[in-house]
Amino acid sequence: MLWPLTACLLAALSLCRSALSQYSSDQCSWRGSGLTHEGHTRDVEQVYLRCSQGSLEWLYPTGAIIVNLRPNTVSPAAGQLSVCIKPSRESSGTHIYLDRLGKLRLLLHEHQQAEGKVHCFSIQEGALFIEAVPQRDISRKITAFQYELVSHRPGVDHHSLSGSCQPCTDDELLLAVCTSDFVGRGSILGVKQEEEQTSVAVTLSRLYRQKSQVFVSGGGRAKRFTGRVQMPRECGVRPGEGEFLFIGTVHFGEAWLSCAPRYRDFLKLYQDAQERGTNPCHIETD
After folding, report:
1. For residue 262, what is the DSSP state?
2. Model's pTM, two decimal places?
3. Cα separation of 20 and 43, whole Å?
4. In this prediction, what percent of the chain has a pLDDT beyond 70?
């Protein structure tokens, strides 16, 4: 059953989109106030965000906003993207729906936003329709979340941020070394099973590249780095001896593992590709 305000808004949704919409395009983040809707609670404001990541903050929500999330480049691969949002734990005052051709599907209830969990959906599932919950006092209500556009490997569920337990192919591995958010050589210190994922503590003897400083230097002359990488709980990872090459992406400040071959296996693969002249990029292997 739709909420009363939702039903009212849907009845005039097409009109709202054309006649009552305000928008700004080509921006990564948006901050607005429902006070501009005061006295016009049926207004629907259009918001266009065209970056790979950013944030939204809606103060004192009234009425509704439609948030259109799109990449800033046109590509056939854009239709395979997922949108992942991570609400602030203080987020409240609205319900969040997916709007596809005027049909709404509830994505997040107001109370679910306070859990601060990441929720993903295919970009083809529609825009975000964020509807204010009718209430007398809106002075303490703020809806806020971060978002990211995520490109998955083939066969991976678009509704999950955690990716797949399937090992990378040789070609995927060589390309991942060139394009991933982090690449490091090191060993596993320990494995912690959490509620929805597995957290692996690692120490790196060589950090080739990283984004967002997810691995920190331990200081000293050895220049080792430590940190944690996340992976799906169902992968059943266990501590292993020897050196691995940790490769992956960074989402909402966390490192997620994409590939983790044993370093000796990667080295043989890399050297074979180097002899054939098929390496997509160079990496120091000393």
Report:
1. B
2. 0.76
3. 6
4. 81
Query: Which residue carries 């970056």 as its tokens?
Result: 51
What are the tens digits of pLDDT across the range 23-69?
444 489 999 988 775 555 567 889 999 999 999 999 999 889 999 99
Helices (H), 62-141: 110-113
The chain-wide mean pLDDT, for the chain, equals: 83
Nearest to 120 by CA among 93, 99, 89, 147: 147
Q: In the numeric block, which tokens belong to residue 189?
A: 């210190």
The CA-based angle 178-159-197, given to 5 degrees, is 75
Q: Distance between CA 98 and CA 124 in Å, rounded?
A: 10
Reduce the DSSP state of residue 149 to 3 states and report it.
Answer: strand
CA distances to 148, 149, 161, 228 from 213, rounded to whole Å, are 18, 20, 20, 11
